[in-house]
Amino acid sequence: MRLPVAVILFTVMIDAMGVGLILPVMPDLILDVRGGSLAEAAVWGGILSTSFAVMQFLFGPLVGSLSDAIGRRPVILVSLFALGVDYLVMATAGSIWLLLLGRMLGGLTSATYATATAYMADISEPGQKAANFGLVSGAFGAGFVLGPLIGGLLGEFGPRAPFYAAAALAMMNGLLGLYALRETVTDRIRRPFSWRRANPFGAFRHMARLPGILTLLVVLLLYQLAINSYSAVWAYFTQARFAWTPQVIGLSLGLYGITVALVQGGFIRPALRRWGEWRTVVLGQGFEICAFVAIVVMPWSTGLLVLTPLAAFGAITIPALQGLMSRRVGDDEQGALQGVIVSANALAMILSPLVMTSIFAAFTHDGAALHFPGAPFVLAGLLVVASLAVFLRAGPSEPPPT
After folding, report:
1. Confidence grade of residue 400 (pLDDT, cut at 50, 70, 90)
2. 8 Å CB contact between 34 and 100
3. How many Å apart are CA 80 and CA 98, to the nearest integer?
4. What is the DSSP string of 305-361?
């Protein structure tokens, strides 16, 4: 593997570790800062996630367009160092409002994944883009393995300890990138910065005019609305349903991450060779629907823990969708496309946490007519069904594999 590829994959993995570290302890941190019940903590968790996503939605296309104009390297480095500051703010927060400020800062600068994906597009042959996007997603999954496991263990020292660890990882990753990353934006593909493309609404309009992109963005948005339910309510759901501790939550997320890394680092390539990008999207969404059904109906804690990796097989969907979209834009617009994809995900993250945590609170608060912690995952499953229906109605957009 070429050194630039190894460095960018390691960058994504370390960034994912920082994100995963904090997930198992978020309920306890909110309760520590604000008090109240688990249902109330879930609602505030949704507000924090939404504030992060609003900033990501507003600034994702700007960052993507900046990376097309000034280069990938400075964008990645600034993002990493700023994320380190964000985690330090959250580690020392004494009020819910300071946590909110930290999440907004994190959303403003969280461009690492999108820019890393554009970096991979820069150095990939057209037919290899989807597979290399799978490597990036697999590296993220590998980081997600270690992050929640370490976060669950560090949670024994208090809900703030993982945030200090996340800050250290982001800073060290920034230093690594400062030393090792080379620039991939050359004069041949450099695109002048434009405010019209840099704002999310103008960027969406521009991309939507390209053949086939609008339908794929709708498919992506519906799918992301569904899978963001995991980060929105998983920790709260497993506490309410099975009284899981941060350590067990971390273990379950680690199992998920292991499977994501295996699927996107290994299974995605033979899947694309055998079925092509279009059929791979259909297969991945089918896996995701089965996963949500399993989560809702599983009555045993151990059974849910064992079945957790099933959801990760749906992770082949995103790289295949990215591959379909990436082959429809020019080399000088790869960063802009990834910025729009980030904004689509951010839009899902704006809506999904608010909706999913509100549904969770409605079905778990004291006096609820029906105690049903799994209600958010019922909605998530229906959203994947809708996403698959839109995709199937559009029909195959590539020649079937031979």
Report:
1. very low
2. no
3. 20
4. HHHHHHHHGGGGHHHHHHHHHHTTS-GGGHHHHHHHHHHHHHHHHHHHHHHHHHHHH
Q: Which of 79, 367, 324, 148 is nearest to 223 (CA)?
A: 324
Confidence of residue 208 (pLDDT cuts 50, 70, 90): low
- Residue linked to tokens 């599983």: 298
Indicate the CATH number of 3-179+198-394 among 1.20.140.10, 1.10.10.10, 1.20.1250.20, 1.20.120.420.
1.20.1250.20
Evaluate if pTM is beyond 0.70.
Answer: no
User: For residues 79 and 115, is the Cβ–Cβ distance under 8 A?
Assistant: yes
pLDDT per residue as tens digits for the range 241-257? 898 887 788 788 777 77
Where is 382: in which H helix or E strand? helix 375-394
Query: pLDDT tens digits, residue range 303-352?
Result: 888 777 777 788 888 888 888 888 777 766 666 676 677 677 777 878 88
- Burial classification of residue 293, based on how many CB atoms lie within 10 Å of its CB (0-12 exposed, 13-18 middle, 19 or more buried): middle
Tell me the two tokens of residue 25: 């302890």
| pLDDT score recorded for residue 118 | 79
8 A C-beta contact, residue 222 and residue 381: no
